[in-house]
Amino acid sequence: MTAGSSQQAHIIVLGNEKGGSGKSTTAMHVCIGLLRLGYRVGTIDLDARQGTFTRYMANRFEYIARNKLAMPSPVHFPIEKSKAPTVEEQEQQDHDFFMMAIDELTHATDFIVIDTPGSDTYLGQLAHSYADTLITPMNDSFIDLDVLARIDSGTQAVKGPSIYTKMVTEQREKKKSRDGHNLDWIVMRNRLSSLDARNKREVGELLEQISELYGFRLAPGFGERVIFRELFLKGMTLLDMKEDPEHKMTMSAISARQEVRELLRSIAPETIKGYPARK
Ligand SMILES: Nc1ncnc2c1ncn2[C@@H]1O[C@H](COP(=O)(O)OP(=O)(O)O)[C@@H](O)[C@H]1O
Ligand SMILES: [Mg+2]
Asked: Which residues surround ligand 1 with Cβ inside 6 Å?
């Protein structure tokens, strides 16, 4: 038995039913960030058909091997949606694979980071019901607020929860009745700076309102930065810059790294289930 093996890993799920909001990018950065704090991390890609997270990870393994680098990486599980003939069989198989991955990782790691597909799937919902922390990255725009709530386009009044928010509420209750714990839901505004100051403030005010109505908190997100694409191709993150032989330290990259650290701080791993922060 390894140290801490009686503890169950803290599960972080990345969710937002819109593709392109930054789930896979954030999943990778949170994972590497936690590894670099000294935690043991396992990862699961539930969007293995599109496979962004899994490709990101494969790029990393390749880059590390090619350059003979000593960099931390997680144990990674890609899970593809079942192709069984009936919906019942598919859900049973999806459930069994998911639970197998969780069982495999839960005592061997401190954190499990799960990336989910953009669309509404059984596997995605199941993962939400197991999340201790749910991170929803959203593009910083009025249009993208509709992933959280229905907004009156004229008055900008909140008319009700979105389908996604209803789903989160439902899975949150499932979790609560299963293990008695609350889901900590964090919404982060991604690709900041695409808006002018006034729009940015208005999106911020509406988000504050929605957060009180539906029970999430806001975390600082990442600015709009071209570096993310280059990092993906190498399997690197902003937290690997020092050891990446090809990396050029720019001011933009340093600010971006600071943003990732702020996000990690707001997840607050040092308070999660009593794990001490390890430098
Ligand atoms: N803050 C950002 N600035 C610039 N590009 C970003 C940012 N966040 C994500 N991207 C890019 O946007 C695309 C979609 O991001 P991704 O993480 O794959 O989203 P999702 O998993 O939600 O579909 C990727 O090409 C990624 O590199
Ligand atoms: Mg993705």
From this structure: 19-25, 52, 118, 190-191, 222, 224-225, 228-229, 232
